[in-house]
Design goal:
The chain contains 6 helices and 6 strands, in the order βββαβααβααβα. It is α/β, with parallel strands linked by helices. The model has no long low-confidence stretch (mean pLDDT 93).
Length: 173
C-alpha cells in the first residue's frame, strides 16, 4: 500500500505482437504492465495499492524501449521499477531481471538463484503474479526438460517472445 494517495499514469500501446497497458508512479518507475492492454486490470491493481490512475503519455523513453524490444531489438529493458509483493515474490521477480536476453532458465534454476532450491512451485506461482512481464522477463523461465511451461498471457505469446529473442521453441507443456 502506498503511504498517501498518489496518482499513477497509465497508457495503452499497441504493437504488432501484443497490446500493452502500462502504469508508472510519480517518480517514473514502472509499477504494472498488462499484456493484452486491459487498462481496467491496472486500475484494479492501483486501487488495491491505494493509488489513483490517470491517462497520460508516461515516460516516453520507457514506451519507446518496450516498443523496440517487441519489434525484435535486443534490449535488457533495465527500466526503473517499483514492486508490490511479498519478500519472496520480490526476490523471485528480481532474479528474472538477471536472465539475459535470448536465454532461458528453468524454474529450478530460478529457485536456486534466490537461495530457495526446493521452492520451484512457489517460484512458478510468483512468476504467475509478476506485475511487470517483459521488464522482469518471466517468459524466459521454462519447465524442466525443455518444456515451455506456463505463462499468464498464454503459451503462444510466450513462444513468440522467446522466438523474438532467438530462443528455439521448447516443447509445449
Amino acid at each position: 500500500m502506498v503511504g498517501r494517495t498518489e496518482t499513477w499514469i497509465v497508457r495503452r500501446i499497441d504493437t504488432p505482437l501484443v497490446g500493452l497497458a502500462l502504469a508508472w508512479d510519480e517518480a517514473g518507475r514502472l509499477v504494472r504492465i498488462v499484456l493484452g492492454g486491459d487498462l481496467a486490470r491496472i486500475a484494479a491493481f492501483a486501487e488495491r495499492h491505494g493509488a489513483r490512475v490517470r491517462s497520460g503519455e508516461g515516460v516516453v523513453e520507457h514506451v519507446e524501449r518496450i516498443s523496440r524490444y517487441l519489434e525484435g531489438t535486443p534490449d535488457p529493458l533495465d527500466l526503473p521499477v517499483r514492486l508490490f509483493g511479498t519478500a519472496f515474490q520480490q526476490a523471485a521477480w528480481r532474479a528474472l531481471g538477471r536472465i539475459p536476453y535470448g536465454h532461458t532458465w528453468t524454474y529450478g534454476r530460478q529457485a536456486a538463484e534466490i537461495g530457495r532450491p526446493t521452492a520451484v512451485r512457489a517460484v512458478g506461482a510468483a512468476n504467475a503474479a509478476n506485475p511487470l512481464p517483459l521488464v522482469l522477463p518471466c517468459h524466459r523461465v521454462v519447465a524442466a526438460g525443455g518444456r515451455l511451461g506456463g505463462f499468464a498471457a498464454g503459451t503462444d505469446l510466450k513462444a513468440r517472445l522467446l522466438a523474438l529473442e532467438g530462443v528455439g521453441r521448447p516443447s509445449p507443456g
